[in-house]
Amino acid sequence: MKAVVFDWDGTLVDSQRAYLDSWRIALAAAGHEITSSDLQYAAGRAFPDVLHHFSAQLSVDPKKVEHEFRKDFPSRIQAEIVRFPDAVTCAQELQENGVDLAIATQTPRTEFDRALAVTGLNGLITTTVCRTEVARPKPAPDLYLEVCRRLEREPADCLAIEDSPVGAASARKAGLFVVGIARSAQAVNGLNDAANTVVEKLDSGMILRFCET
């Protein structure tokens, strides 16, 4: 492996709570109490796809839901986003060992750049691709194919780190080797089906062993 590509939300940082809280508030305003299956569907998916899904399944007004979601989401992200120490340490040590790093995220560019600056990780990983820069979101392979193009690496020479089955499927379709990071017990089963291997904590030594093969 010549490069490591991190997913953003749920892998390097935890902004999932803010994301799902904003969905809960937006759907409540439209008269729907969000369920665990709703949350499971939204996790790891791009906003437009989740909005389309809820609009079709719940018969809610998409314009009203989007307005409610975006009303306080930026401030919620800035207040609630948290870095995962194991992932940040792993990325720092990989960089020190000369491994190319990148991020492939479902987050739109404007929101991502704002969140990246808040976390202070903008100096660590400079190659990034956002949902708004490719034709199709995860689970399509577009994000990972574009990352590999920018890194000037073949997908088979790259390793992806993902926390969701949706993201893992995207990376696998693109041809990357996928390490699933199970941040919760519920995530294990889905990641076992989608990733090449699943771990409970990120460790640069383990990743570097792949990079040496």
UniProtKB/TrEMBL annotation:
Matches recorded under InterPro entries: HAD-like_sf (IPR036412), HAD-like_SPP (IPR051806), HAD-SF_hydro_IA (IPR006439), HAD_sf (IPR023214), PGP-like_dom2 (IPR023198)
One matching Pfam family: Hydrolase
Keywords for this protein: Hydrolase
Origin: domain of life: Bacteria
Recorded GO MF terms: hydrolase activity
Keyword Hydrolase: yes
Keyword Membrane assigned: no
Protein name in the entry: HAD family hydrolase
